[in-house]
Amino acid sequence: MGKLGILGRSVFFRKPTESMRLFITTILGVMLGFFIGISFPAISITKLHFPSSIISYIEDKNSGITTQALLNHAWTSQHQNNSLSDVNATAEIYITSNPKGTERLAPGILVPESDFYLRRLWGNPSEDLDIQQKYLVTFTVGLGQKNNIDKAVKKFSENFTILLFHYDGRTSEWDELEWSKRAIHVSARKQTKWWYAKRFLHPDIVARYEYIFIWDEDLGVEHFNAEEYIKLVRKHGLEISQPGLDPNKGLTWQMTKRRGDHEVHKETEERPGWCSDPHLPPCAAFVEIMAPVFSRNAWRCVWHMIQNDLVHGWGLDFALRKCVEPAHEKIGVVDAQWIDHQVVPSLGNQGKSENGKAPWEGVRERCRREWEMFQTRLANAENDYYKKMGITPTNSTHF
To answer: Can you tell me where the transmembrane regions are (predicted)?
Structure first.
C-alpha cells in the first residue's frame, strides 16, 4: 500500500509538469511559426517558373489555348483570397477624361492608336520590326491592273507601308510579286476606295504615318519618285496635295495640270465665271480625288467628312479646303513629280446592267447623284450650325 501511495503521489505530481511542458512547447512553436511567416514574403504565382518539361508536356497533350487556360486557372486559384480587395481597388478607377467606354481603365494601359506593321508570332515584341515605316500608300485594285500596280509600288521606298484594297476579290494571284508578300491585302468585292478608306483608314489606325497616299490603280508613274515627292511637300508646307498630271493625256482641271517650270503650284486660272474667288476651288485650294496625298492632321479631318454611304467621293475634292487653313496655301500640286492618269474604266465595269443600260452608265449616274447629295448635306450642316449660333449663313459651301 505504501508503494502504491508513493506511486499515486508520483503520478499526480508528474501530470501537471508534462502538461505545462506541452503547453509551453506549443506556444513557442506558434511564435516561431509567426516570426518565420513575417520574415519571408508570400510566394506569388507571378514568380513561379514552371519547368520546361512540364510546359512541353502540356503543349504536347493540349493546344496552346488549353495551356493558357490551365495557367489562367492556376492564377485564379492562387489569387482567390485577394480578389475582394482587388475589386475594391478597381472600382475606385473612373476617369472621365478617358475615351468613352474606357473610364474604368487606368490611363497607363490605354493604347488608342494602331498601325499596319506586320508582327511575328514568336520572339520578343520589341524586336519584331526591322523598320517602322513613316508613310502609307494605298491602291484600290483589280487583277487586270497588276502590272501597272507593280510598277507603281516600286516607286515607293521601304519607308512606305503598302496596302492594297481588292475590289474583285482576287488576292492570291498577287503572291508572285515579291513585294506583295510584305503588303497588306484587304478584299471586298465591288467597293470603291472611299468605301475602304472610311472603314480601314480611321485616323487612329493610321496615326503612325506622316503622310497617307490614297491612289487609284490607273496611274502612270514613270516620272514619279515618292521620297522626292515627300521632300517637296514638306518644303512647300502642303497638307493636302497631288502630283501634277500630264496635260497631254486625259481630261483634267487646269489646277491639276503639270507646269513644267514649277516645283509646286497652288493656284491657277480657270474658265471665266468658274471661280467666284481666286482662293477657292477650282482655282485654288483644290486637288482631284484620283491621287490625293494627306498629312496625318489633314486626314483626321477628311476622314470624318467622308460620308459612310457615299462611296464614289464626288464632291469631296471641292470640300477638302475645309480641313486646312489657309487652304490656298496648304493645298497644292507638285509639278516636279508628276504622273499620267490613264483613265481605265475598270471600276465602271464592276457595275450592274439595269433598264438596258451598260454597267458603267449606272455607276456614272450614281457618281453624279452622290455629288449632289454631298453638296446638299454639307450646305445643310453648315447652315444649321450658323442658325444655331445666330450667324447669317454664307454660301461658301456651294460649289
So the answer is: 21-43
Domain assignment present for 201: yes
Q: Which domain holds residue 225?
A: 135-349
As for how many domains the chain has, the answer is 1
On whether residue 184 sits in a domain, the answer given is yes
Cell 492618269 sits at which residue?
341
Per-residue pLDDT of the chain (399 residues; tens, 9 = 90+): 444 444 444 443 444 555 566 556 666 665 666 555 555 444 443 444 444 544 444 445 445 555 555 555 555 555 554 544 555 555 699 999 999 999 999 999 999 999 999 999 999 999 999 999 999 999 999 999 999 999 999 999 999 999 999 999 999 999 999 999 999 999 999 999 999 999 999 999 999 999 999 999 999 999 999 999 999 999 999 999 999 999 888 777 999 999 999 999 999 999 998 998 999 999 999 999 999 999 999 999 999 999 999 999 999 999 999 999 999 999 999 999 999 999 887 776 777 777 777 877 889 999 999 999 999 999 999 999 999 999 987 655 445
Could you tell me the CATH number of the domain that includes residue 161?
Answer: 3.90.550.10
Residue 289 lies in a domain: yes
Residue where the block lists cell 520589341:
126
How many other C-beta atoms are found inside a 10 Å radius of the C-beta of residue 72?
A: 10
CA distances to 6, 271, 316, 378 from 372, rounded to whole Å, are 122, 22, 11, 10
